[in-house]
Write a structure and sequence with these properties.
By secondary structure, this protein is an all-alpha fold. It has 19 helices and no strands.
Length: 496
């Protein structure tokens, strides 16, 4: 089963990083080149609210699937579970639509009283509907070890469509209003495909025999998991999106655009964890079901070490190139450069704590995740409320960074209490030492005026020195084994 994680995680990582390159092109070049910061900010607010509502109106069903999937599938036909999942999508979408009409005038508040925002609120309806569809459908597929479908549609195809939309406005084929519509369609794409995939898996020939007896059988457990799932998921998405909303409300959409753009670079550090987190939930759920604590400890320890190595490497790459990044996207973003630093530090700490959230979410003490995530959301709101008026966008980044570090520390403590395991060892100190050596020596790289060439030279230096030291000092067996396999392949090609 560890092989399943490794294989799908590797393929998923490749797809995600192709998507990341496209996303980088969108955020680092296309958007700042063709859109004003306030126009970027408007799109960011639409995304933020659709994510918040999409999470809430998923009604906790993704959490139910993660916790009970092995048990339900063992007792029922897959078609019944798929059909009930689609029913939840319909119910959640109806409730979300009603909520939009009821709360619309409270959602779009801008510090500059920008009426442009109110013009697009109806687009939230399709955004939320297909957000819910993707969340539920992708979770179901992940539990069947089919995580690559969701990665392909959301991380890759969606970003390609967004690129196309930005180019359309860039070449003045469409105006800004139509661009927002095109952006909305792109954001709905992955949810639509996943929903169609689910529908295609329903066995309509035995449709009349459909029953949801598993709901009645596990009623109390489902309600309990869904309730805490809503609390936890809502807290998580509020924690990750509320900074944009608060910046927009307190200092305006221009600052929202600056924050959204630079936030992307900081969060880049934690991207490699995405495929691993997607795939590991099914394996961890099975391990908890079998009470295989040794497997959980092994997965936890390996995830901490390997993600820390990758996280430090990416953090160095991003922060050493911060001046080049600002040069590329425009001097208007200079005032927010430390957003990259603080979001990067928070993302790195999240990588350092491995799969702690997934381990808790798939265990019998999953309720604690809701408490932690609720605490995270509250902490982000309080720190942002305090720091945004003082430091503007950088204040929001500091608040988010402090909140991530605090809550992940509590997760580490809880897991240690429950399974008596601390996933850190001396190798982590070696990784940090290597990171410091690379950072200090990067000052020796000659200054290059062209930011693209400078990034290339810095990247080559960081990659060669960092990974050589990681390999020589044998920090990670997994990474060394992978490197040796690649070396053997190269030698075989040379001999051929």
């Amino acid at each position: 089963m560890l092989g399943v994680i490794q294989k799908q995680s590797s393929t998923g990582a490749i797809l995600i990083y192709i998507g990341i390159l496209i996303g980088y092109f969108n955020v680092a070049f296309l958007q700042p080149k063709f859109l004003l910061a306030e126009e970027i900010g408007l799109v960011a607010i639409l995304i933020a609210w659709s994510e918040i509502f999409g999470t809430i109106f998923s009604l906790g069903w993704p959490n139910v699937l993660v916790r009970l999937f092995p048990k339900i599938i063992a007792e029922n036909k897959k078609s019944n579970l798929i059909l009930f999942t689609i029913l939840i999508i319909v119910i959640g979408s109806v409730l979300a639509t009603l909520a939009i009409f009821i709360f619309a005038k409270f959602l779009f508040i801008d510090a500059n009283d920008n009426s442009q925002i109110e013009k697009f609120y109806l687009l939230l309806i399709p955004l939320i509907i297909f957000n819910v569809s993707f969340r539920l459908g992708d979770t179901y597929l992940r539990m069947e070890y089919k995580s690559l479908f969701g990665i392909l549609t959301k991380e890759l195809f969606q970003r390609i469509l967004i690129s196309f939309g930005i180019l359309l406005i860039g070449f003045k084929i469409i105006d800004y209003d139509r661009f927002v519509l095109a952006y909305t369609l792109a954001m709905c794409f992955s949810g639509l495909l996943v929903l169609l995939y689910l529908v295609s898996k329903i066995n309509f020939s035995s449709f009349i025999e459909t029953n949801f007896s598993f709901v009645k059988k596990h009623k109390s457990e489902i309600i309990n998991i869904a309730f805490y799932g809503i609390l936890g998921s809502a807290g998580a998405i509020i924690a990750s999106m509320i900074d944009r909303v608060m910046i927009n409300n307190m200092i305006g959409d221009r600052y929202t655009g600056i924050y959204y753009t630079l936030f992307y670079y900081g969060i880049f550090v934690s991207i490699p964890a995405r495929p691993l987190k997607r795939i590991s939930t099914a394996v961890l759920a099975e391990a908890w079901k079998n009470n295989d604590i040794l497997k959980i400890k092994k997965i936890y320890t390996k995830s901490v070490l390997n993600l820390t190595i990758i996280g430090i490497y990416l953090f160095l790459g991003v922060w050493i190139n911060n001046e080049n990044i600002i040069e590329i996207i425009g001097k208007d973003y200079q005032e927010g450069v430390f957003i990259i630093l603080f979001i990067g530090i928070g993302s790195l700490f999240d990588m350092m704590t491995g799969l702690n959230t997934e381990i808790i979410a798939t265990s019998k003490f999953y309720k604690y995740n809701s408490y932690f995530i609720g605490g995270l959301a509250l902490l982000v709101i309080l720190t942002n409320w305090w720091l945004i008026p003082i430091y503007k966008t950088v204040g929001a980044a500091i608040g988010t960074c402090v909140s991530i570090i605090t809550i992940n520390s509590f997760r580490l403590i809880l897991i240690n209490i429950k399974i008596n395991h601390i996933p850190f060892d001396f190798n982590l100190l070696k990784v940090f030492f290597i990171g410091i050596v690379v950072f200090l020596n990067s000052a020796l790289i000659p200054n290059i005026e062209n930011p693209f060439y400078s990034i290339l030279v810095n990247g080559i230096f960081i990659t060669l020195v960092f990974w050589t030291l990681i390999f020589v000092f044998k920090i990670s067996d997994d990474i060394n084994d992978f490197a040796k396999k690649q070396i053997k392949k190269i030698r075989r090609l040379e001999n051929f």
